[in-house]
Amino acid sequence: MLTKKQWEFCIDEFGEMFPGAHCELVHENAFELLIATLLSAQCTDVLVNRVTAILFKKYKTPEDYLAVEVEELQNDIRSIGLFRNKAKNIQSLSRMLIDEFNGQVPPNRDVMMTLPGVGRKTANVVVSNAFGVPALAVDTHVERVAKRLGMNKWKDSPLIVEEKIMRWTPIDRWTNTHHQMIFFGRYHCKAQNPGCESCPLLSLCREGKKRMKQR
């Protein structure tokens, strides 16, 4: 397992490798980011952006999403996985935003998580990127990187991964570390064929060292 000092070295390297890491979901406001993040579950950001480029021209407000039958919304996002459930959740959360939050996305993670279809990861993404609240969302890339490095055990849940990273990372670096870990996992430490041979963290990475021995 990594030590805290080794982890500090890791996050510095993430920053060196990907200083411009950012949220790649295209959006103009908190509501669009909420919709895009909900759609991104089990789906790539590239596909989501392709869909929302059209979707966000048609639907601007929660009221717009409620003005059509759910079947029409399903058809609008049909190329995205789980489109039926996601369409229902979008309409349900739109209704709740209107009824309980004056049509605005609440800037509080726990409150946001009361919206249909909004889990901890989605809420963390929105509060950190749309409202500037320090948060660290654990997606598949963040989880994979943390476990490969030995920051966490393979059996640890995403919540445990999140809590440990936050304990060992300065609060003012949570959001940037989240983005940099995503870029590191998406473009370097890939699920398939990770770039172990050129990785600056290889000497610390339990998974990378195993992979290099097997070559």
Structural commentary:
It is elongated and about 55 Å long. It contains twelve helices and no strands. The protein has 215 residues and is mainly alpha-helical. It has helices at 4-17, 30-39, 45-58, 62-66, 70-76, 83-101, 109-112, 120-131, 140-149, 158-168, 174-187, 206-214.
What is shown here, in short?
This protein is mainly alpha-helical. Helices cover 60% and strands 0% of the residues. The radius of gyration is 19 Å and the shape is elongated.
Please outline the helices and strands.
Elements: H1 4-17, H2 30-39, H3 45-58, H4 62-66, H5 70-76, H6 83-101, H7 109-112, H8 120-131, H9 140-149, H10 158-168, H11 174-187, H12 206-214
Helix pairs in contact: 1-11, 2-8, 5-6, 9-11
Quickly give the structural class.
Answer: mainly alpha
| Fraction of residues in H or I helices | 55-70%
Q: How many strands in all?
A: 0
Task: List the total number of helices.
Answer: 12
State which percent range the strand residues make up. under 5%
Compute the separation of the termini in Å. 23 Å
Rounded average pLDDT: 96
Give Rg in angstroms.
19 Å
* Outline: elongated
Topology as H/E string? HHHHHHHHHHHH
The main β sheet shows up as: none
